[in-house]
Amino acid sequence: MNKNIKKVTRKFNNPLAIEVKNVTKTYVLRHQKPTLIENILYRPKKEIHTALNNITFNVHEGDRLGIVGSNGSGKTTLLKLIAGITKQQKGSIKVNGRVVSLIDLSAGFHPDLTGEENIFLNGLVIGMTKREISEKKQAIIEFADIGKFIDAPLYTYSSGMKLRLGFSIAVHSDPEILLIDEGFAVGDENFREKAHNKLVGFKKQGITIVMVSHWLWELERSCDHFMWLRSGRVVSKGNIKVLKKYQQYFNHP
To answer: What is the span of the domain harbouring residue 181?
Structure first.
């Protein structure tokens, strides 16, 4: 009993990797483009959409957080805020560690450059040095497993090939915090298994992972903490029971 208590105590004493406090993010939606006259004479019609509504949660170093929720619940918006891609209107987000995000597969890639050239381009975008990229280039190519296409321009790649290349660059960049969106469910079975094994290795290294997916089976085997978002609010956060509650709601809303 005492041993268990000590383990739990150490767990909760882990430093915070991500601290999200009272965060609200809104977007202005304009349903039609106003004319110049309408802009001058009338107030343009617009709607405020609240993507995230006063949410608060923490992620400790080494945690692997899986986030679930229906489309439009705010999952990807949350990842973009943590990554610094966009900014919240209210609240604060503190991130402690080197963040690497795999959110938009096209970000940091150029369609006219080859796969190898895009490794350097994307690597620089996510904060790697040229020396780091050169040292890890071969490992990135081998993990991505896109064969002779590494010398072909990116516009010839399938979605799955872009995914594998982007994921490979991200996981070889020595992240301290890795953010993963829906993306890697696009890969084939062999790649998904390889990606999962890489994430398992990250757990042993104490790397923090925040993953968003509708693929609950992958979240269940890759993560140890879970959070359910609905309409921009946190419904529940905790252990595997969160996924079970989400499944029950989804099947019997």
So the answer is: 2-251
